[in-house]
Amino acid sequence: MSHSRRVLKGIGITVACLVGFLGVVQLIPYGRAHANPPVVQEPTWDSPRTRELAVRACFDCHSNETKWPGYAHVAPFSWVLARDVDAGRTTLNFSEWNRSWDLAVEAGPSVLRREMPPRSYKMMHAPARLSDAETEELARGLDATFGTDRDAAVAASE
Predict the structure, then answer these.
(1) End-to-end CA distance of the chain, in Å?
(2) CA dihedral 73, 77, 82, 88 (to 10 degrees)
């Protein structure tokens, strides 16, 4: 058998194994529920603009109003999305403002530090790519909404 035929055969086997693996992982049920529990209560936003920016950059992970994209139905992407949404809703949930959220004071500073929204999310969701002015506007609005003294919160996180 010639070298090029062996290489092609190896590539064919690799592709078949990959396709088989991706087919089998579809049988794992985790990440497919895509539940959006009811909105209980939102914060009293300082302005409609703050809410608008938060919807664009935060709500898919930090609310009960997640927009599940088509790839959220395909493992292993569904696993990553389910994990991220579960973690986001556990940390800070704009749809369940009937309880206290200790990390609400960090919302504005984390936006300013560009930790939120995460780079991986922005790569797949163009509306979450805020301009510098929008980033500053969202951070100020979150601080105002949550009654946060930004200077104190930034100093505490350093």
Answers:
(1) 63
(2) -130
- Which amino acid is present at 104? A
Tokens in use for 102? Answer: 């200790």
How confident is the chain (158 residues) per 10-residue block, as mean pLDDT?
76 73 63 83 97 97 94 82 93 96 94 95 94 97 86 53
What is the distance between the alpha carbons of residues 103 and 105, in angstroms, rounded to a whole number?
5
pLDDT at 78: 84
- How many CA atoms lie less than 13 Å away from 47 in the CB half-sphere? 11
C-alpha 54/C-alpha 43 separation (Å) is 11
Q: Quickly tell me which residue has 């999310």 as its tokens.
A: 121
Give residue limits of the domains in the chain: 31-157
Q: What is the 3-state secondary structure (H, E, C) of the chain?
A: CCHHHHHHHHHHHHHHHHHHHHHHHCCCCCCCCCCCCCCCECCCCCCHHHHHHHHHHCHHHHCCCCCCCHHHHCCCHHHHHHHHHHHHHHHCCCCECCCCCHHHHHHHHHHHCCCCCCHHHHHHCHHHCCCHHHHHHHHHHHHHHHCCCHHHHHHHHC
